[in-house]
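Renewal narrative, Specific Aim 1. Our central claim is that a sequence can be written position by position from structural information alone. The example that follows is taken directly from our test logs and has not been curated for this report. It begins with the structure tokens describing the chain, in the order in which they were read.
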């Protein structure tokens, strides 16, 4: 007689039924962790709630008193040190060490330790003249770029790598002189393009490769002098481009609307954006193998639920894991770690769990701010034998309290929910976040209420913009918040012959996020062969979506 199948568990937060994949179960058994009580979507939302990537504040360093820029607000309850001072030897996180109290939950004690131990002001490394950046390394002469590396002379962008003179871009790689581009690579002088590669001197492209001198085109390969997918001569193309008058806001918007209308009816979409992959699901991934629901990542193997992660393997539930990370689980901001679980801003560490702002540590548990340490618990030093016994006692205690194997809770995040990536992908109202027990950062209304002088109109045409606009305070047409145009930004808009933006950077960034598909998969059928696919295009969406083989037959 066959026994009845056990029902799938329900997520303890959203109550949706879910079941870990076989590969995920094997991974959890390998690292000695229980199966999750939260569904993948709720786990992702929880990790996002720990990542303040773009909101910067002026405040003072709690060590030196000097004015600094930080992701922590001036009234944050956390001690914050300038990034250079944090890495220095003027302080010792072991001074905050304490005994474990078996009469209290672990997370309560870990939260108190995090508040007592200094945080790093910004997550940057080896930047030059790029103060207003975060999650960035080896950048030069950049301003307001985030989660971006190896860039030069780039501004107001997110997720770019090895780019030069780019402006208002999202998730672009090895691009030069590109503006308002999303998910593009190896391209030169593009504007308002998406998912296009190895292309140049074009406007409004979607899913084009090897194209040049094209306007408003989709799904093209190795084409030149096309407008709205219609072939032109070189002379016809130049004439029509002049008539389009890209420097005028109104005419450019009209042309954009024509492009969007035509593309929405005729463009064929591959069920995911990626290449060089084997046995993967997700979106915007390249050169990955055996991966479940990974996004914006490359060179991964045997991973699940990773975002912005590169050159790593055997990891699950991670937001940013790079440079050979392995056996990581439930971590945020991870560089070259091995067998670490539930860490936040921890680098070059191994065989450790529940770390916050730790560097080059091994065999540590529940620590914050320590560097080059081993056998520590709550920032207190133990011998190897003492550490093993105490760690086992704490794990047994956490099993009784229901805390063992649980990710770092959003309630412990040092940021308000609305300061984090979570608000971009899982937006909540203030009351909803507070009801869940999550923090909220009250926005000061002084930005919009304080007198800023007479309102300065933004000319519709770039040729009518005077040099002194960089001295003016402009108001966002959507939110009313003030913003400014910097000289480098003005020069690039003039060089591209494009009108100035009319919204503040936050709104421009969110607009680009909304242009991308959500980081979530749905089951639907290929609209040509009927094969079942998992895709970020929800079944009710109007786009034409094909499986990989049908798509390749259409566009190549």
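The sequence written for that structure reads:
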């Amino acid at each position: 007689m066959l026994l009845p199948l056990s029902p799938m568990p329900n997520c303890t937060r959203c109550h949706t039924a879910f079941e870990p994949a076989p590969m995920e179960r094997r991974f959890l058994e390998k690292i000695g962790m229980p199966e999750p009580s939260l569904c993948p979507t709720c786990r992702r939302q929880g990790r996002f709630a720990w990542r303040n990537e773009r909101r910067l504040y002026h405040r003072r360093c709690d060590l030196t008193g000097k004015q600094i820029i930080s992701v922590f607000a001036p009234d944050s309850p956390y001690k914050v040190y300038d990034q250079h001072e944090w890495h220095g030897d003027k302080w010792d996180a072991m001074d905050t060490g304490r005994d474990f109290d078996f009469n209290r939950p672990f997370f309560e004690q870990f939260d108190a330790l995090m508040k007592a131990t200094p945080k790093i002001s910004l997550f940057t490394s080896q930047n030059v003249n790029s103060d207003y950046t975060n999650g960035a390394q080896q950048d030069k002469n950049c301003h307001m770029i985030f989660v971006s590396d190896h860039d030069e002379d780039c501004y107001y962008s997110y997720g770019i790598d090895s780019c030069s003179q780019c402006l208002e871009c999202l998730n672009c790689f090895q691009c030069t002189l590109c503006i308002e581009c999303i998910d593009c690579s190896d391209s030169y002088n593009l504007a308002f393009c998406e998912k296009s590669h190895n292309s140049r001197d074009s406007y409004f492209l979607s899913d084009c490769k090897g194209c040049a001198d094209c306007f408003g085109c989709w799904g093209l390969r190795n084409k030149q002098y096309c407008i709205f997918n219609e072939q032109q001569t070189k002379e016809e193309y130049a004439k029509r481009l002049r008539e389009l008058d890209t420097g005028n806001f109104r005419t450019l918007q009209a042309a954009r609307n024509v492009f969007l209308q035509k593309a929405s009816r005729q463009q064929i979409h591959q069920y995911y954006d990626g290449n060089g992959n084997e046995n993967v699901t997700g979106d915007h991934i390249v050169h990955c193998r055996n991966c479940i629901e990974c996004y914006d990542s490359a060179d991964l193997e045997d991973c699940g639920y990773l975002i912005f992660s590169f050159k790593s393997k055997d990891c699950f539930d991670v937001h940013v894991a790079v440079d050979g990370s392995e056996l990581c689980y439930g971590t945020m901001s991870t560089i070259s770690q091995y067998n670490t679980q539930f860490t936040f801003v921890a680098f070059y560490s191994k065989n450790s769990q529940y770390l916050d702002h730790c560097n080059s540590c091994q065999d540590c548990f529940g620590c914050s701010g320590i560097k080059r340490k081993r056998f520590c618990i709550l920032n207190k030093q133990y011998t190897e034998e003492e550490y093993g016994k105490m760690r086992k006692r704490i794990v047994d205690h956490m099993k009784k309290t229901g805390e063992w194997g649980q990710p770092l809770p959003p309630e412990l995040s040092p940021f308000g929910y609305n300061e984090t990536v979570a608000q971009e992908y899982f937006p909540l109202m203030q009351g909803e976040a507070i009801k869940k027990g999550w923090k909220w950062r009250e926005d000061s209304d002084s930005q919009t209420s304080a007198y800023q002088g007479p309102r300065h109109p933004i000319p519709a045409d770039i040729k009518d913009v005077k040099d002194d606009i960089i001295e003016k305070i402009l108001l966002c047409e959507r939110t009313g918040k003030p913003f400014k145009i910097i000289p480098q930004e003005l020069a690039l808009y003039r060089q591209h012959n494009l009108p100035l933006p009319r919204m503040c950077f936050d709104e421009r960034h969110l607009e680009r996020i909304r242009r991308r598909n959500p980081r979530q998969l749905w089951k639907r059928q290929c609209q040509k062969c009927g094969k079942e696919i998992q895709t970020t295009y929800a079944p009710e969406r109007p786009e034409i979506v094909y499986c990989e083989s049908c798509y390749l037959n259409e566009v190549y």
